[in-house]
Specification:
about 20% helix, alpha+beta, four-stranded mixed β-sheet, homodimer, 3 helices, globular
Chain lengths: ~130, ~130
């Protein structure tokens, strides 16, 4: 028999105030869509974990590796919930800014955000080029 | 030089209306915290993907494998964003109900939800027992 859990309200937020998912997908070299973590080292995810720890946020914000987020042409891709802000082409050098501005200051880093026309659409101009 | 993306508004939602993360973490057999996918088969994540495809939702809802969501004592663990609803002890037989009731009907499956006292807290009664 499974344990019973009691939720206090229908849509209560989890204790993570923000939840960062960093794509760790790998594809073979030369794949037309590319991938977010070609060598599988999860360096970007670990950099987020380290930065959160340095800022004293490891109990309230989690940086998770994820499977393919399907925004491969813009990788490395990161999505932050609950607000659903997507970032593309994220480098190691961007991690401190994302944590400082967005995670702490609640101001997304606009220069890295994926536009609506790029997220989850077959008509994204970057996707079309990559698939040619 | 990195491509420039233009977001239409500061907090626009991604094109995924809901984003399901299914923990795929593995730990060695006998680990006191347990893990969500002991054999690494990702069966639960694939079941969500299949169910979403059957319901015609694969373009608007994504079922992603994730790294450790850190709710190991309640695994297999699933979290649905943007609403941040957490489920524990999710079985293959629960997938159709979660998709039908929550993803389509916007009514979380209460019997599977993790309570606030279980999510991301060292004082969770299940965690304490497992760590003894």
């Amino acid at each position: 028999m499974r344990p019973v859990f009691v939720a206090s309200d229908p849509y209560s937020m989890a204790k993570f105030e923000k939840h960062i998912f960093i794509c760790g997908n790998r594809r073979p070299q030369g794949h037309p869509r590319g991938c977010c973590d070609p060598n599988g080292a999860a360096e970007l995810q670990r950099a987020f974990k380290t930065e959160l720890a340095l800022r004293g946020l490891k109990d309230t914000v989690r940086a998770n590796k994820s499977g393919c987020l399907d925004q491969c042409e813009h990788g490395p891709t990161v999505v932050v919930y609950p607000e659903g802000v997507w970032y593309g082409n994220v480098n190691m050098s961007d991690v401190a800014e994302i944590v400082g501005s967005h995670i702490i200051g609640d101001r997304p880093v606009e220069r890295l955000r994926l536009g609506d026309g790029c997220i989850n659409t077959q008509t994204c101009q970057h996707r079309s080029k990559a698939a040619d």
